[in-house]
Each structure stands twice: as structure tokens, then as C-alpha cells.
Write a structure and sequence with these properties.
The structure holds three protein chains of three kinds. In chain A, 77% of the residues lie in helices and 0% in strands. Chain A is built from 13 helices and no strands. Chain A is globular and about 80 Å long. In chain B, helix 6 packs across helix 13. The longest helix of chain B has 38 residues, at 279-316. The two termini of chain B are 19 Å apart. Classes of the chains: A mainly alpha, B mainly alpha, C alpha/beta. At the A-B interface, helix 1, helix 6, helix 7, helix 8 and helix 10 of A face helix 1, helix 7, helix 8, strand 5 and helix 12 of B.
Amino acid sequence: MLVFLVRRLVGMVLVLIAVSFIVFLIFVIVPGGDPAIRIAGRTANDQNIKNIRHDWGFDRPFYVQYYELMKKAFTNRLFEQTHQGVKVGDQIKQGVPATFSLAIGAATIWLFFSILVGVISAITAGRLSDRLITILALVGISMPVFWLGLLARYFLAEKNTIFPDGEYVPFTQNPAQWFFHLLLPWFVLAVLFIGFYGRVLRGNILDTINEDYVRTARAKGVDPRRVLIKHVLRNSLIPIVTLFGLDFAGVLGGGAILTETVFDLHGVGQYAQQSIRNFDLPPIIGVTLFGAFFIVFFSTVVDFVYAYLDPRIRPT
Amino acid sequence: MIEGAPEWAPSGLRMATQPQQTTQQASAELSLDTAALLAQEEHGVSIAGRSPWYLAWRRLRRNYVAFAFLFIFVLIVVACSLAPVYAHHVAHTGPDENHVTDTVKIGHKQVPVMGLNTGGHIGVTILGPTWWHADGKFVLGADANGRDVAVRLLYGGITSLKVGIGSALICTFLSVVLALLAGYYRGWVDWVITRFFDLIWAFPVILLAIALGAALAINGIHWNLGLFTVSVSGGNLLIPTLVISYVLIPYIGRPLRGQILSLREKEFVEAAIAQGASPLRIMFGEILPNVASSVLVFFTLIIANNILTEAALSFLGAGVQPPKASWGTLISDGQTRLSTAPWLTLVPGIAIVLTVLSLNIFGDGLRDALDPRAKVRIEH
Amino acid sequence: MAEKLLEVDDLHVHFTTEDGVVRAVDGVSFELERGKVLGIVGESGSGKSVTAMTLLGLTRGVNAKFDGSIEYKGQDLLKLSETELRRFRGNELAMIFQDPMTSLNPVYRVGAQISEAIRTHEDVDKRTARNRAVQLLRQVGIPHPEERVDDFPHQFSGGMRQRAMIAMALANNPDVLIADEPTTALDVTIQAQIIELIGRLKNDFNSSVILITHDLGVVADIADDIAVMYAGRIVEYGAKRQVFYDPQHPYTWGLLGSIPRLDRAKPEKLASIAGAPPSLINLPQGCKFRPRCPHAFSKCTEHPPLQNRVGDSPPHLDRCWLTVEEKRDLRELTIHGEAAA
């Protein structure tokens, strides 16, 4: 068991290194041209470009450039180009509470409703409730989340102030307001995942119902509710765990850029988006690394959870 | 795909790998037709001899809903392709032409495209949808620059569809080739390709797409390769197309690779090798036809997903660059004027939903028809 | 006189599918006495599995229609509600299935699954149930049962898994054990062990057994009576000796002839039954075996009833119009091919 753990952790570190290198490649090498000009972005002038070139090591071999970039990123010495002197690391830290609040709340909601929807849909397969849920789910996953967010914000928060109009209120400042301000973003973000996960779960359940071991359970005389929960659901949820872990990690790492932007939550994601608008590369690099870390980390966590849930893949 | 469907898998795509059994009825006791399946299997012996494609076609034919939506999708594609025709003959304007100071005849009145506000709010009132009352002009209203929304919608559709379908083609092609190579050669080739999949999979894909899109959009691609230079400007559609295409490769590649690996063990492959068939022939002649149905379904759903991704990227500024129109940029244009000109946001959004929904529904129907008991699963 | 446990009378099971009505079981009758083993033999599509599953009500569903009766201890199982029927399942009527690999839930320990069978029908605590599970595992011949009871199914070998399934089925001392192709997914050597186990346990638990298989060799050992099924009907039914030594139906001859024999001269070709089983939606007129029968004649377009033509006692029934003499003449040819002629 320990060997498994160590191996996975080592693997995780390796992937992180690979990911960081790819980030480097994407921003510095792939586009070709002069990276210094690119980094300078909007503030490009001769002096600036020369400084950047020296500072980032663009006048030296690529592995030095990679090293310089990593050094900057991990010692919090990445600076914005639009606001000189502002550290990317600090900005990210400021955005974390909002991003995490959004992620955790939305994830809880979407997990709960997905299971509800998936089970109902599967049990009543073919009947009206199933068809209705399927249609809603399909529409839900066909909507661009930012569009839904814009409309939700406008119709429910601006025009008719049922909900607060965007912005994030820190929990420590006012828990009630924190909650109300997040409700709409939570649901907008969750809706799309619910549509998707609900359908996946439905499919899994319908498959599992036809499995031989479910037939065995029924042949033993086990009552249907127990069959559903202990045999069908337990096995149907396993693949969902993997997907959920990665999605959650993605949102945690700032992946909910669109929702954050539309609702002005000033989280990590929105920070990235603003940087894009400003053609400011260093923050984008920073956020990408930040997000990557979460994904890789959670991917490993999910591996362990999966092994716990499915004894077949445990190391003997 | 960015939040629009969970990050890690495009909306319909992960579902492509799970069968959806809408034809099953459930009794109160949750007893589904295990026995009927059994009986059908036992009797299925007698319908052997009809090719699986014919049977699939028969099943698909009965699915009116799927066909209806396929029709809708085709309609949308046709409508968008006729954008120049519409622009010229119906609206009498182009996608980039400003009509800020123009007026339009509705009924008996001359209504300004951008009228100054009287009373309450300072600002301009933009002309709303005229619904054919103005002779085909500004059927869906005007935007903040006085441009015809309907025209821009159609032109934007061309862009979104181009990027969506183009990236889907590239993605499918690459995934299939990689999966074939990995599944056929196995060994170290497989190891390398799987690591490649892992890497993309492990990456915060959405961030990567945005980052890449942004990085490339700013200045485009310029490679000096000695003999020749590759130079793609930031506004070129190729950039978002390429960016979006690689993003989904592991989603398709991995399940396909799994399928191919198990096919590889089957006797007909061994037989082909024994007959001296070349690897290329085996991969494309023997194995590929057997995974063709999965590929077809994936392809349909990837298009749906990529259209959403393109919209999101363009909305954020990391995809299609203005002034070029795409459905995503249109929504972005409209967001500041939601209260005064809601159609600017609603119209392109509805277009996206309709298109993506059609593809999703048809893709579902296709999957049901091709392999009602498909067991290709997303592997971890 | 042995106690009659199960009496199936003219059972029909039809499924409505998108291709038509599948007549999976079309008029099947048989009896089971205490302590006896009934072997039901037939190819895929003969309806044998559907018959077995219908006994426990596992085929019930929106698309299924039933007719006839299944009398068990005076009650017609077909008429019982799902809740009432559940009292019998895993209790007095138990079933084991073909593929032990997939018939056990992979995420629960084997002992837990056996305990579940016990605690579904009896109000005992977990400790007691677990001890019983260990006992059962020992009885089915699993070594070190105290340790293996906490293993997961994938840690068992195929043969052991099937033993565990048998243990689970016998947990509540069933009167009737239904074994649906219990050995088909196993190696030949293990097959023999499992069959021998079933035979032994039948005595230990004083149960009756319905053994379903496509392999006549499997029932040759422990069956008392044999029913041969084809296209949803029984085409031959009698005591083992009768069916093996004096088979009356050409289909049975085909089955017997397709078994390779070491004690006879090698025939030119291994005899097999030409053709394929009929569609259960569009069944042929008259005798269902007619299209594949080398001895079909004019009367075969009329549906043959199941009768004791050979006049034996206990009754030896068959569904073939040929006279007993004709049968005896043609039989040798069919079973042993040209070599014996």
C-alpha cells in the first residue's frame, strides 16, 4: 500500500514538472517571435522590452528561460505588466476565498441534485418524468454557462432584485450576505454540471441494473430499496467519483472563469480573464500554474478514493 | 466546454460513452427487461445475417426526434452558409457596416437606428428587432455600432460553425490516429501516447485553452524555420480552431484506445496478420471499421462541445478576435447593454443553444441506434 | 412416495419486443419431487433459462406475459405478488447463475454477500450471520474459510467463486436449488468438481435440484430425470436411463450424437445438428424441429403432442410422430453416424 502511495506521489510530482514545462512552452516558445515583446504586452516600449529580455533570460538558452520562469513563479516574483509592482502571487491569494467559496458551494449543490435527478430519471426510465428530466438536462448542457449567467444576473438580480447583484462578500465580513451573493452563481454553475452528471448517472444505473450481481441480489430475495442503494447505486457512483474529482479540482483552480466574470466575484478566474483583456501574460501564466497544481493534486486524490471504492483496483 | 459542460469532459461527450436506454420501461420494482434481453438474445440468433449497419439504420429511422433535430441542425448550417445571400438581397447590408446615423422605414415612420434618448436615461436607444416590418432590414435589431444583428448572426454562425466543425475534424482525426497507433503497436508506442493523453488530461484544460488562445491571439504565430517562415496573424481563425481541437483528444483517444486494444486481441486481427497484411491495412481496414460507430458519435458530440468552447473563448477575448463576428463575440458585445438592448445577448445565445442542442439530441439518437448496449467507457 | 415439491403446468412466457412477440416458453410442464434432480437440457434459445428464472419470478416486467401455473407447496407462484414472492427467493427457492465472475458484486466482501442472503430472511445479528457464512464456505469446500470470508470476489478463482455462490444459495436451506448453467463458464476439471459438489450438497441439505445446461454430459452424472427443451417446449422427458438409453426424439439423438465418444470407432465426421434454432417470434408450423430434422415426413406439419408413445413406466414422453420402431431404426444412424451402421 505504501509503495502504491509513494509511486502515485512521485508520479504526481513528475506530472507537475511536465505541466510547468508545457506552460513555459506555450507562452514562451510556441508562438515564436519575440517573447519579450509578448510579455511586455501593452506596455511595450524599447526600454521595457530590454528589461524583460534580461530579466526573464530571453537572451540565454531555453532551459535558463524555463528556470527563470519557475523561479519567478514559485518565489512570488511574477509581476504584472499592467500595474507595475503588483505581484501576481498576491493577487491570486486575494482571489482565492471567492473562488473556493464558489467551487465548494456549487460542487455540493451539483452533487446532491445530480444524484437526485439521476436516480429519479433511471427509476422512471421511459416515463414522463424521465423524458422531462432528459429534455431539461439536454437543454442545460447545451447552454453556454456565461450566457445563462448573464441572463440570470440581469433578470434575477438587476431588473428584479430577488438576488444581490454580483460581487463577493467575504464570509468573515458578513456570513449571511456571503451566502446570498453566492446563491445565484452557485446555481448557474451547478445547473450545467447537474444536467451532465444526472445523465451519466442515469446511464450508469440503467447499465448496472442489468448486471448479473443485481440479478443475484434479487434472486436472494433482497428488498428492492436495498438492491437499489447497496447494489445498484453503490456501483453506479464509482465512475462519477472520478469525473467529479477532476471537475471540482478544475473549478477550484480558477476554472470557473466565466461564472466568476459574469458575476463579478473577483476570484482567481476573473483575475485571469482581466489579464487576458489587458494582454498581460505573467498573471495568466501564474493562474495556469495555480490551476494545474490543483488538477494534478486532485487527480491523485481521486485515484486513491477510487481504489477505496473499487476493491478490484487496490494493490494486493 | 468551459464550465458549459464540466471541464473534464465535454457535455455530450462523456455521455457518448455511456449508453442511454430510453427504450426501457421500468416497473415499480425496478425490474427491467433482463429476461426480455435474454429472450431477445436467444432469438437474436435468427436475425444474424443482417449487417449491423442496416439494423442500426433501422433503429435510427424510427427515432423521429433525432431526425427532427438533425434537420434543424442542417437548416442552421444552410442558413448560415447563405449569409452573404441574406446580407445582400434581404438586409442590404454587410456584417461590418455601421448605420449609426441611418434611419429605417417602419410602417409610416422613419425610425433612427441609434436614436437619442428623451426623458429618463442619457444615452442612445438602439433599434430593436423589426421582424420584417422594415423591409428585411434589421430584422433582429441593431447593435451598439449600428450593425444589422441578423446579418452578423449569420456571419457569426459561419465563424462559429467553421471553428466548431474544423476543430472537431482535427480532433477526431488526431484521436483516431493516436488511438490506432497505441492500440495496434502497444508496447512503448502505447506508453508514450498514453502519457501524452495523461498530460493533456491532467492539465487545467480550460485555462490552457484560454491561455493558449490568449497567448496566440495577441501576436499570432511566427516561426522562423530557416528555410521558410510560418506566420499566422492573431486574428486568423486557424488559431482558435487549433487551440480547441487538441483539448478533447484524450476524451476520445482513451476510450477508443481501450476499444482498439480489446479488438486487437480478436481472432480476425490475428488472422489478418497471419495473412501478411501490412499494419496500415490492418489498422485502417480491419480495426477502424469496427470502431467507426463510436467515432461517428464522438464526432457529432465534439462539434457540439467545440461550438460552446469557441463561444466561451471568444466571449473572454481568447478566441475569435473582433471585429470578426462569432456567436461568442456577439454575446460579449451585448453584455453591457442587457437592460436597453436585450436582444443583443439573447439572439446569439439562442442560436448557440439551438445548434448545440440539435447536435446533442442527434448524437444521442445516433449512439442509441448504432450500439444500444455500447460499453465503451471513459477510463480513468 | 416422494413429496411433490414443484409442479409446473403448461407454462407460457411471452415477451413483447420491438420485433414482435417472443414466445420464449411455449407450454412447458414438469414435476419435481423432494430429493430428486431434474436436468433441463437444450441449446441457446430453447427457453430453459427463461423457464428457470420464471420460477423465481425474475422475468416479471412490463413486457412479459405469463400463462399456466407453477405450484409450489400448494401456492401458484405466478399469481403471487412481488412482495409475497420475495419471501421465497433465496429462502425456499434458491438459484445460482452461469457466470460466477459477474454474479457477485465486486465491491462487497464474499462473506458480507452471504450474510446478506441470511439476514434478508432471518433476523440474526451480523456476527451470527458471519459465522454461518464461514460454515457454509467450509461445507462447499473452500479452504481456510475464516480468512477467505473477508475476501473480495476478484480474489477468488472461478471455481471457488461458483462454490461461494452455491454457499450463498444454500444459506437458508432451500427446498429447491435451481442451477442455471453452473459450469458453463468454468474449466472442464472444475466442472466435474462443481457437479459433484452439487450432488453431495443435495443430500446434505435434503434439497431438490433443477440443473439447467446445454451439455448432456453434465447431467449424465447426477440427474434423476431429464427434460430436453427445444424452441420453448419440452420435446422429450423421462428418467435419465430412459432418455440416455432409449432416446425417442431426433433432437435428443442429435445432442447425444454430438458428444465425442472414446469407446466407439471414430466416425468420419462428428455428427452435428444441421441448421440453427428457430426464431421465437416466427416459429415454424407444426413440429418446431421439423426444419432441421433429417427424418421429417408429411405428418410433421401437424403439431405433435407430448405423449408416452414408448409406453414405458415411469412415463417417458416425447414429441415425435415417428413410430417407436421407426425411431429405433433411425436412431443408430443419427447418433453414431455411418461408423456403427
